[in-house]
Structures are given as structure tokens and as C-alpha cells.
Amino acid sequence: MRRAIYPGSFDPATFGHMDMIERSSRMVDELVVAVLNNSAKIPLFSVEERVSMLEEITGHLPNIKITSFQGLLIDHAREVGASIVIRGLRAVTDFEYELQIAQTNRTIDSGIDTVFLTTSLEYAYLSSTIVKEVASYGGDISKFVPKQLMDKIYAKYR
Ligand code: PNS
Q: Which protein residues are within 6 Å of ligand 1, measured from CB?
């Protein structure tokens, strides 16, 4: 059983995340999408909301499980039995940070490898931060996030 973990903040999930989830889920038997519960940051959505939104937008995919975690990603990867970490690279600016995290994680546990997928070109510019910025001014976010999430995002700024 090949199981991978795709961690992130997903605050909120975007089409860029969906692209990564759809593509990486085809490479493994099970993909665990893991939402970071980071007490150091104040998110727009609670961890429960983010988990529930991810469940909603990945419902059509057969081999996805959504979890949340606090603390080290490697500990959660071990907990769920994942030996692969999936991360997306949008541009060269992501690389330095991602390389540092991947190498740290591999030093902690050499049995868990990070696999990078390059984000599809059409979403290379996209981030949760951009979605929040546009939504906060009432702009159109239909090209950025699945339609099931649009009202939930706008509601946060009403
Ligand atoms: O979507 P993000 O915010 O870019 O995701 C970052 C994430 C969740 C992958 C990263 O912050 C993370 O793994 N945090 C958990 C703490 C940890 O294990 N850090 C790596 C060792 S320094």
C-alpha cells in the first residue's frame, strides 16, 4: 500500500491545491491531505472548517483521506503510515524554503521522502493569500477556488 501525505494550511484550498491533490492521488493508493493546525497563526478558517471544505471538494476522488495535525509533519506522516510527502513547486522562489523543509524532514526520518510536483502553469501564480486578498475587496474568486467554497470565503469578509 503506497500512502502519501500532502500537508498544508489550506486556508482556504484553491484550484492549485486541487490540481496537486488530483495529480498526486493518481500516483498512490491513498493520499492523506493533512491540514496544519498552527497555533502561531490566526487563520481565516478554523481547522474544522478547512477539513470539512477539503472533504467537500475532494468527495469525487476515491482514495483521499483528510486529517489535521499539530506539531511536526513527520510525526503525523508516521502516525498515518505515509512514506511520501507531496509538495508543490510554483516557481523558483518556493524552492529554497521547500528544499530546507524536505532536507530537515529527511534528516529526522530517512524513511520518508518528499516528492515535488510542479504546479500546472495555469495556477502558478495562485495562493491562498491571493484568494483572501481578492475576496476581502469583494473581487471575483471564481477562477481561484472551487465554487462550493466561494460563499464560505465571502462570508468571512461580510
Ligand atoms: O501550505 P503551507 O503553509 O505552505 O504548508 C506548510 C507546511 C504545513 C507543510 C509546513 O509548515 C509544516 O510541515 N509544518 C509543520 C511543522 C514541521 O514539521 N516543519 C518542518 C520541519 S522544520
A: 7-9, 36, 72-73, 101, 104-105
In the residue annotation, 17 being an active-site residue is answered as yes
Count other C-beta atoms under 10 Å from residue 89's C-beta: 15
- Report pTM: 0.97
- Are 101 and 58 spatial neighbours (Cβ–Cβ below 8 Å)? no
Give the tens place of pLDDT for each residue, 18-61: 999 999 999 999 999 999 999 888 999 999 999 999 999 999 99
6 CB neighbour count, 10 Å cutoff? 24
Amino acid at 50: R
Domains annotated on the chain, with CATH: 3-156 (3.40.50.620)
Residues in CB range of 75: below 8 A, 6 or more apart: 69
